[in-house]
Every structure is written in structure tokens, then in C-alpha cells.
Amino acid sequence: MLHVTHALVLVVVGEALTMMRQDGLNKLISVSRFTKCYELDDAVALYHSLRMKPVYIHKAQYEELLSFLDMVKPVSLDEFPSSLMGMATELRKYKILSLKKTEDDEVLQFVRSKIPSPSVNVCYLILSEQCNLACKYCFLGNNDPARRKKFSSEKMTKETAEQALVYFIRQIKLSGNQNPENKSTIIFYGGEPLLNFPVLEHIALRIHELGKVEPCIKNAELSVITNGLLLDEYKLKRLKELGVSIAISIDGCSEEANEQRIDLVGRPSFSKVVAVLDTAKNLDVNIALSVTLTEKTVQDKNKILELISAYNIKGFGFNILMSDETFTLSDEYNNNAADFIIDVFRDLREIGIYEDRIMRKLKSFSNAQVYFSDCAATAGSQIVVTPDGSVGICHGCIAERQYFVSTIYDESFNANIDPLFIKWSQLTPVNKSECLSCEALGICGGGCPVNALHCKGGNTIHSLDERFCVHAKKTLEFLIKDLYRIIRKSD
Length: 491
Fold this sequence. Notes:
Helix content: 25-40%
Radius of gyration: 25 Å
Number of helices: 15
Structural class: alpha/beta
Largest sheet: 9 strands, mixed
CATH architecture of the largest domain: Alpha-Beta Barrel
Shape: globular
Number of domains: 2
Strand content: 5-15%
């Protein structure tokens, strides 16, 4: 056993037990190399990172199992003593015990065969590349004057927006997603999308009109992600009328926590956002929060809880900061952010509120389904349309127009078979050799390729997003131990 921090015990028993048998037998019952062991108070949890069903057994039974495998080296379940037979059968059911040397590779190949092909159903409309803030951590580059110059000053026109909608509908149909039950998503984004509110209004109305004759967007979910500074009573009411959900980005619950969220001349913005939240509350307009976890934010959980309670926030998600050559983070940040997300989740679930990022992993864990991708870009399921009609796969690559391969006027383009979209859809942890030994392989989703690209010199989109390594591992440990707590409580 290897004891590491936060009480996590990783037992890579598969490798050790493989060495026990050198006689070339293909059939040798051993612990799968995908099996990890978590120590609990009086038990252990055995977890296969691709089968994803934890099995809880007493420590004494676990030690007896290891001793038996070591001494007997069984080739059949029939060789197990009666004291271990029931447990061995259960462990075999969840692939924790392998019957032959090739089984792990077969399981991996089966999982890889289930990686979804590109299938577009998400569209980001970049209504304006310009922004009225210059957040110091901006992953798009609005905080860097040199990169800022690369952003177009032109706003998306009504004509471009309409053509983008036609293009999106065509891509959905090419994906075979015409069924209205396969809800498509259209996100108004920037820069700051509210700098171009008239076009937002126009295209939202157009979507509703086209939805009457185009089943694939009949139930489209519309949302705007905004810093909120330009929201007023009219816009709040109008967005509600149009069925556009509103997500306001914020860093925390104080001016200090939001000190990196400044306008173009360096002035703070938090008090203005609070005023908008007050207006929305008075108008009974639901607001979701997109909370960027700064170093200050993760130091004060209670203030976030107070903010959520004060404004009756029902929808929110946490964003872990990205780092690059212009913005660095402390060595402790990734751990602190991961712990913060878990702590807030634990408190808010008591009142029926659930954070989006951890819920995606919880859904994967509870359904025992491998979570291949944590974003629509790495699922090959989104397109991004810029004000000039360029089409790409990731909104984090607007400044350099990297990974933009089409335009809205290209009627021959099919994202579902395009080499770039296929390449991005394969950026899943189960395809990365460095991820195969990780306990969180099945629930991770792989993080953000753009952050992986920029966080270290020489990186590519195939590199690891190390923020998510920490987040995924800590989340999995929490879920396994929390499930054990629930089971014990119900006994």
C-alpha cells in the first residue's frame, strides 16, 4: 500500500500480482490494474476506474483476499474458499478481479469503442469580441493589450446571426439530431454579448419563429453568459420574455474577492453587479451564477453561501482558474479549489441546491457510465461562430482564430466528419496513456485542452489539464466515501 495525502490509499495491486505469476498462464485470477483501493474507517472500497461500481468490504476480508491471491494464485473461482467465495463473485461481477491477463485490455478497448463520434447540438454565437471588463485572468486574452488588439471591433450583424442559425440547423440535421427531444443549445457569448443586445433580441425571436418549422430547434435552450454590468430593468424583463436564461459571471461575494474583475481603466465592478442582482430579484427574474474561483474566493466559503441564499440562486457553476505566462497561481490553488467545490456542494445539497460541475461527475458515478468529455468542444458537439462568420470548435481560441475551419457560408462543411472535430472528440482520458493508471479515469472528462495548451511551454491540446486531475481525484474520493457514509447510515 502507498499512503498519500488526504487519506487516499492507492493500491495498484494489478501490477504487483501480475509479477507473482511468471509461468505464462493466460488464466490467472488477479486484481485488475484498473482497481484502486480506498481506506475507510473499518473497511476498504475497491473501485474499478472503468466499471465504476465501488465494492465495500471489511479490512480483514480484504487482507484475507490478498493473502489468498498471493499464496494460491488461483486460476478459477472454484478454488476460492467458502469464506471468500461470495466476495470474490461480487468483485468479479464488477471487474475488480480479472480472470485472465488480457481482460483489462479488452475492457479498455470496449470502453474506447463507446467514445461518441462528433454530433453537433451546441452553438456559441459570439455577438461581440469586445468586452467592457479586463479581468486579470481572462482566458480569452482581454487582459492583455496586445492580444486584445486581435479581437474584432465589429459586432455580429443580424444577417450574420441569421445565417449562423441556418448553418447550425444544417449541422444538427447532419448529426441526425432532428428529434425535438434532443435539445439543442444556443449560447450568446463574447467578449460581452450585451454590447450587441439588439442582435441578441432579433436572433432569439428568429429562433422561436424557426422552431415552429424546424423540429431540431423547437425546444432549443437559450442562454446568455454575461458579466452583468449592462443588464438593466428592460433587458432583464426582455430576456425573461424571450426565454433566455441569464448566467452572470462573478468571482465571489465581496469587492476583495472580485479585485481581479476590473473594467478597462482598472475600476472595480462588484458593486455594480450586486445592484443588478438586486434589480433581478425585485423583478423575479431568475439568475444563475458562473463563479470563477479566485485565490480569495476559495478562502471564504460562507460568503458564497450567503450570496446564493440572499438572491435565491438556484443555478450556478464553479470555474477553476486557468494559468498561463501572463497569470500564475499558487502551488496550493488546485487543491484549495477542489476542496472548496466539495465543501460548498456538501452544504448546499442540504437545501436542494446543486453545483453543476460536481453534478456532472456525480451523474457519471451514480450511473456507472464513463464520462468521456467535460465540455462540448471535446465531445465534438459544439460550433462557435464569430462576428465575421468564422466557424470553429472552441470559444477559447477566438483571438488567434485557432481551430477555426469553416464559415457560415460553407454549405459543404460537415462537422460530424471533419478531421478537426474528430480529433477533438478523441481528447478523452481513456485515450491518454498517462491517464490510464488514474483512479478518476472514468469520471474526469479530461478538463480543458486550451488550458492544457497554455499552462506550460511546449504543451499541446493533448497535454493534461492538471487542474482537473486534482479536482477529479478529490471528487471521486469524496463520492466513494460519501456513498459509504450513506450506506452505513441506512443500516
